[in-house]
Design brief:
single chain, alpha+beta, Jelly Rolls, 4-stranded antiparallel beta sheet, 5 helices, 9 strands, about 35% helix, about 25% strand
């Protein structure tokens, strides 16, 4: 491992999945809201706070197949994608992998679960050699407590993403309702309203 880097706690080489991979695994992605970008959250940081934030991060280089976040498990912390590619996927009803999307460089992975302490709703796995920053959940929460501007900005962005996801889900449900609603029969009706 290069100097100045460390093994990321919680990241592990991928194990061979016993589940079948779906058609979606081969390239088609399920539309979901995009993640938070590090620049969106930490843009207004003072130089002093930015230095503290940089010092909290553990820099890591991960080979392809490294599992960063595992669906159903509580993450050890927050990941920042600096270079490379990470796919985000979840398990389908038949145990198949459904690829949701590929994370963008600069994206924060596991932030919602890291703040809430909940379990991951999807998995994240490197698909190319990747460079990541990592901050433990405890250190990240302490940083947010000490930097109210960042905490407030994070709440705003998470709220925006939640609202966007709600609107997208509502639109999908309305589209499904329109296509599944029974259509009136064409032609003359056999019903008689006379007694």
């Amino acid at each position: 491992m290069p100097s100045g880097t460390a093994e990321v706690k919680g990241a592990q080489p991928a194990m061979k999945a016993e589940s079948k991979e779906s058609e979606l695994e081969r390239g088609t992605e399920v539309p979901v809201s995009l993640g938070l970008n590090i620049d969106e959250v930490f843009d207004d940081l003072s130089l002093e706070a930015l230095k503290v934030f940089q010092e909290l991060q553990v820099k890591s280089f991960c080979p392809p197949g490294t599992v960063l976040l595992a669906e159903g498990q509580t993450p050890a912390g927050i990941f920042f994608l600096r270079a490379g590619n990470v796919k985000l996927f979840r398990s389908g009803p038949a145990g198949e992998r459904i690829v949701c999307r590929t994370a963008q460089i600069g994206e924060i992975l596991g932030v919602t679960e890291g703040v809430s302490g909940g379990s991951c709703r999807m998995s994240a796995q490197t698909i190319t050699p990747s460079e990541l920053g990592f901050i433990s959940r405890e250190a990240f929460l302490q940083f947010l407590c000490a930097n109210g501007v960042v905490a407030f900005r994070l709440v705003q962005l998470l709220s925006d993403h939640l609202d966007s996801s709600y609107r997208r889900l509502r639109s999908l449900m309305m589209d499904r309702f329109r296509t599944q609603r029974p259509q009136p029969a064409s032609g003359p009706s056999n019903l008689s309203f006379n007694r």
